[in-house]
Amino acid sequence: MAEAAAAQGKFWPMHDWLFRHQDTLDDDALLAGAREVGLDVERVRRELVEGTHRARVRDDFMSGIKSGVNGTPRSTSTASGTTPTSTSPPC
């Protein structure tokens, strides 16, 4: 979804939307989010079905694996700052 948004010049708005709604990322919610940030929803839907951005996502994923990334960092905010606490396994 983020790559489809980037193709329309809306990566950061979609990134922020995804972060705020990370507990509700089913297909309907994703398309609603795309609409909310001003994406051409039919183009997004078509690109997802056609796998337009699949190679780039796979390449980015593999680059992370080769670099030793094995999960998504999570952190805990405290009064003294933010401290990494663990990693989540990749999807």
Compact description:
Strands 1-2 form a two-stranded antiparallel sheet. The chain is globular and about 40 Å long. It is of the alpha+beta class.
What's the helix and strand layout?
Layout: H1 2-7, H2 11-20, H3 27-36, H4 41-50, H5 54-66, E1 72-78, E2 81-88
Antiparallel strand pairs: 1-2
Task: Describe what you observe in this structure.
The protein has one domain. Helices cover 54% and strands 16% of the residues. The chain is built from five helices and two strands, in the order αααααββ. Strands 1-2 form a two-stranded antiparallel ribbon. A hairpin with a 2-residue loop joins β1 and β2. The two termini are 15 Å apart.
Give the helix level as a range of percent: 40-55%
Based on CA atoms alone, the radius of gyration comes out at 15 Å
Overall mean pLDDT: 85
User: In angstroms, what separates the terminal alpha carbons?
Assistant: 15 Å
Residue ranges: pLDDT <50 for 5 or more in a row?
none
* Order of SSEs: HHHHHEE
Main sheet overview = 2 strands, antiparallel
Q: How many runs of DSSP E, i.e. beta strands?
A: 2
% residues in beta strands: 15-25%
**What is the SS-derived class?**
alpha+beta
The number of domains: 1
Mass-distribution shape: globular
Separate helix tally: 5
- Largest beta sheet: what is the strand line-up? 1-2
